[in-house]
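Summary for the funding panel

The consortium committed to producing paired sequence-structure records for every protein in the target list. Below we show the first two records in order, beginning with the earlier of the two.
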Amino acid sequence: MKKFFIIFMYLTSWKVFILHSQTYFHPTSGIAGTYVGNCMVNTCSGTYYDNGGVSGNYSNNIGDGAGGGIYRVFCPNAPGQCIQVSFSSFNVECANPPCTLCYDYLSCIQSATQNGPVAWLLCSNGSIIPPITTATNSSGCLSFRFYSDASINRAGWVANISCVPCSANSTPANTDCTNAIGLCGNTGASGIASSPGLTSEACTGCTAGGENYSAWYTFSVQTSGVLSFTISPTSSNDYDFALYGPNVSCNSLGTPIRCSYAAGNGNTGLSPTAADVSEDVTGNSWVSRLNVTAGQIYYLMINDWDGVGNGFNLTFSSGGSFASLSCAYPLPVELTTFECTPEESGILLHWQTATEHNNKEFVVEKSEDGINFTEYKKVMGKGTSYTPNDYLVFDNSPYLGENYYRIKQVDFDGTSTYSKIISCSLISSNDIFDLQILNLMGQVLFSYKGVTRNEYEAILNNVPNGIYFVTLSQPNSNKKLVSKVNIIH
C-alpha cells in the first residue's frame, strides 16, 4: 500500500512536494539510555515515515516490552502555531481483522515528552488510518511512540506534518537560547520551564534527545573562582540541565561542559563531591563544579523532563573561593561604528557591531529635522555573535537638505534601544546648483540658475504651502537630485 502511494505521488503534480519537502523517519533506538530516539524537531511542514521509509517495512525489536516504544517529538517553529499530523497510509501488525490485539503499535502523545496524555494508540492492517490530530497542549507539540516485537513487520505509515493557528502555544520568553534571561549577581532565579521553545538547540551531549520543557539563562563571571549551583524543583519533578560556554553563541553552542540527564526527582546541579562532568539517565543528578574566569559568559538550559508545569529555584554558591557573577551579561549589541557618506545618487550608511546578543533586527530610521523620524529599512541581525559584523544600507531617496539617521536595535523579546543620531547632506555649502520647482503635474513653477545651499533654503521659504517636486542639477555634471517636498510655513 505504501509503495503504491509513493509511486502515484511521483507520477502526479505532487512530485515537487515529495522531492523538496523535509522528510523525517522514526528512530529505532533511544539516545543516552532513554526512549527518545531523535532530537526534537521544530517544523511546520514535512513528511513523516516509519524507519523503513518509502518502500521498506519497519524494523522488528523497536523499543521493549518493559518500558514501551521509542519516540520522537515534533514542535512548531512559530508562536501561535500547533502541530497537526494527518496520515495517508497506516499498516502496523495486529491480529487478524478487526485488529483488536496489537502486536506492534504507534501512539500519539499530547506532549513534548513521552509520558504525556495519549491521544491514541493504534495498529491496523491498512484499513484504519489514525485521525487527523492537532496538538492541544501548552507546548503545541506532538510526540509519536512506536513499538515492534521480534517477528513480522509491516509497511508502516506515511504522515503529513503541518501547523495550524492555535492559542495553546504561547511560547514564553526564555524557552530558547536566543531569549535567555540574564542573571544579575549570585542571587539566582525562580522560574517555570513550560515549553520547548521554537528552536531545537540542546541536541548534543547528555541532552542529545533535545529539550522537553526548557528555561534558558545567561550570565557573565565578575571575579574568577569556582562555579557551583543547585536547581531545586518546587514540587516532585525530574529536572535536568546543560551548561554551555565559555563565550559561545546560541547558534553555535557546541557540547555542554557540564550536563546531567539523570532520571529521578529532586535537586540537581554542580557538586563538590562529583567527579564526572556529564551523566545520562543512570547518573545521580550531580556533576563536578567548574573553575571559571572573570569576563567569561555562559548559557544554562534547565529542562523539565516531566513537563507538568511545576517550577524550580536556581541558587548559586557565593563567598570564599566561589566565583561572583556580574550584572554585565551581554549587551544586546555593542555598536562600534555608525557613519554616513554622501555619494552621487544617495547616502551610504555603514555600521559595525563588535558583539550581538539575541539581536533580531536593526530598523534604520531617517528624519529631515532630527526630531521626527520615520522607518526607512529593516535589516536582519545576527542573533548572537562574538565576532565583528558590518552592515550597509543605501538611501537612494535622501532629502535635499540635511538627512538625519538613527538605528533602532530590536531584541527577539521585542525590547529595543536607539543609537546616536548622525547626519549627512548631498549638498555642501560650496556647491552650485540649478533649481527647478514643479507641481505634482510636472509643470515647472519656478526656475533658478547658480543657486547655493543657503539660497536654496531661502527660496523654499518663499514658496507657498503645498507639495512640490524639487530638482537640483549641477552644471557640467551628471549629478541630479529629485525630491518630493511638503512645504508648510
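The next record, for a separate protein in the list, is shown here:
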Amino acid sequence: MAAQIAREGVSVGIHMAISAGRQSVLRAPVLANIKHQISLFMIDGMESRNIVGRTDLQIEEVPGRGLVKLEQPTLFQTALPVEGDDTLSIINRIQEESKEMRNAWHGELPLPIPMVPDVIEFTSFIEKQETKAIVNNGGIPFAVDFENVEPMELSVIEDQNTLILSDRMDAVEQTYLTLISSISINQHIDVGLIDNVSSRFRVYKENVNLYADHAETMDVFVERLQQLFETREDAFRQVQTATNGRATRNDFLKEIRPMIVFITDVSFIIESMSFTSQSMLANLIDTGARTGIYFVIGAVHGALERQYDDIATTVKKQKAGILIGRITDQSILEVLSRPYKEQNLLPYEAYYIRQGKAEKIKIAAPYVNREEVNVHV
C-alpha cells in the first residue's frame, strides 16, 4: 500500500512523508518512488552520504540539523517548534503548548481523524449519539465500518435474513453476545432465541420473548412462530378487505413489531429438532419476512457446507451475512470480487456481506457479565 501511494499518490493529490531510522529499512519499491530524501544526524556518517551523495559536509549532533540534496548536498537547520535542550524536552514542551492552545480556544474544533481501535468496548459504543439514534429507530447497532468508523446496524429487516458464519463457534458466540447486548436496550422489537449445544445463552433467557434449548422446547418454539405467522397473515388479509385492497404489505409491516429470531447454531437444531419442525422452520426462514419474522442464523461454515437437509439448503440460499474469517475460506456467502492473498483477520474484525459486496467491519466487544446486560433492559 505504501509503495502504491508513493508511486501513484501525486496524480490524485496525495503526498506522503515517511520517516525511518535507517534508509535500509524502507522497501525498495517505496524508496525508488521517493524523490526527496533528508538525512538528520546519524552515528554512521556513511548513512548520510548514501542518502544525499558524496560530500565533505558533516552533520553536527544538533536537533533539527541535517543534509538535503538540492543541486548539491546542502546543510540546513530546521526551525524547531519550541525551545528545548534535547528531544525529550522538545516533545514535552510541544505537549504543554498544545494543551495551552486547546484551553485558550473556545470555538469549534475539527473532528478527530477516525481511527478503528484494537477493541471497541460495547459500553462506550452504545453511548455514542449515532448509536443511540439507531436504537431509537428500532435498529440493532453492533459494529463500526473501517472507512468512517461510524456505528453500523444489522440490516436484518432490509435483508430479511442474516447469516453469522465463522470457522470457530466461539467467534459466532461472541457476535451473538454483542447482538444480545444491543437488543437488550431496544424496545421496538421482539426477540426469539434458540440456544446452542452448550446452552451458552441460557443466562439471557429473561432478555428475550421466546427461548428454546433442547428438542422439546424447539418444537414448541417453532409451533409458536408458525402460529404468529398465520395470525399475521390473517390480519393482513383483514386489513386488505377493510381497505378494499389499497393496503400494501409494506404498510402492514410498518404497523407491527418485528420478530427477530436468533438461531445460534443451525447444525445443533438440525440434529435435535423433529423432521416436522425442521420442515416448518425451513418454510418460515423462506417466507417469514412476509409477516415481519426475520432470522439471524449462526453456523460454522465448514459444517454447514456439508449439510443438505431442508434447513441447510434454505440457509445456504441467503445473500447477506457477517463473515468472521477469510472470504476465500468459505463458499456460502458469494462475493463478486474476492481478495487476492487475503490476510487473516484480527480479533473482532469481520466482513459484512450483502448482495455480493463485502465491507470490512469491527464488531463491538460484548458485555462481560450478564448483570451488564440486565442493567440496560
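Regarding this second record: The CA atoms of residues 185 and 377 lie 5 Å apart. The chain has a mean pLDDT of 88.
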